[in-house]
Amino acid sequence: MLSSDIDHLLTTSDPTAIDELYAEACRLRDAAYGRQVFVRGLIEITNHCGNDCLYCGIRRSNTCRRYRLTKEQILDCCRQGHELGIRTFVLQGGEDAWMTDERVADIVKSIRSQYPDCAITLSLGERGYDSFCRLREAGADRYLLRHETADRDHYARLHPTEMSFDHRMQCLRDLRELGYQVGCGFMVGSPFQTIETIKKDLAFIADFKPEMVGIGPFIPAEGTPFADRKAGSIEMTLRLLAIIRLLLPKVLLPATTALGTLHPKGRELAIAAGANVVMPNLSPQDTRALYSIYNNKLSTGSEAAESIADIRARLKAIGMDTPVSRGDFKA
Ligand code: 5AD
To answer: I want to staple 291 with a disulfide (CB 3.0 to 4.6 A). Which of 44, 67, 100, 176 is the partner?
Structure first.
């Protein structure tokens, strides 16, 4: 796509142009995957974090109650998820030093052997090449690591000085080289974000060609330096989902929890803009509220079974199937 086309799509206020953008995104998605939305079971394994990202509610400096799940608890979440037809488990957490390669590899191996028909996705932040290699050998298939912003100066305004833009980008290249299906992504409406930084994000995504892209609105998190900032816009998030579908027709694109948090129909709106993945929470009831990366994060009191049934019903109502499938990237 021409950069002048992207400019126009990012800035136009013509409702017909925007509707056409969404329609084209859906056509491309349906041509690649059919009317299917893939379901991932999200397991938030730890909210301990050694990083101090300025936007994040579980940053090191925030005084919140910390937890980590035991291996038994994690396997129990997988068991419940598998019974509900989930065939991808996403193990997400802060950068927790306790989660050594040995411990994570042990958990991954157990899931791999108990659920050979499932994909295992990790989302545990930055690690070294050897660590990614060990976890890949243990059986992990995919890794999610949002790049957060492709603009170096913007990156520096969102993160403490000890964090490095170059290292983050290196992690993404390492993951790719190790044969992971890789997901990058960014928040929409993060502090200091501009149309120019968004254009860099889109150029990076078009060039790196990740298998997955996670984007959701920034939502202020209590106790953080950005607690009083305003949330990102739903419209801009939807527009970006659609543009990313145009750039990478086969990409796996989640309707994120952040969008569901800002709007009761956020997930459906995302699907109508070209998204094709949902990630219901399989974490235990009592730890969900503690994984508060931003305010009012959607975590219904409902059980995994109930929320998965609810998501499936809502998607069915808008004409989308939710197959019992790993939902791998189509090369
Ligand atoms: N609002 C929205 N998204 C956030 N994330 C972290 N903090 C926030 C926030 N306040 C996103 C980051 C991170 C992912 C796990 O959650 O992009 O990579």
So the answer is: 44
Which atom of ligand 1 is nearest the CA belonging to 56?
7
Nearest CA to ligand 1 atom 11: 187
- pLDDT tens column, 308-325: 999 999 999 999 999 999
What does the alpha-carbon distance between residue 70 and residue 82 come to, in Å, rounded to a whole number? Answer: 18
Nearest-atom number in ligand 1 for the CA of 258 is 2
Structure tokens at 314: 């809502």
Best probe residue, ligand 1, of 168, 171, 294, 297 (max atoms within 8 Å of C-beta)? 294
Q: Name the residue among 8, 19, 5, 23 with its Cα closest to residue 274.
A: 23
What pTM was computed for the model? Answer: 0.97
SS3 assignment, position 103: helix
Residues 6+ apart with CB under 8 A from 312: 39, 322
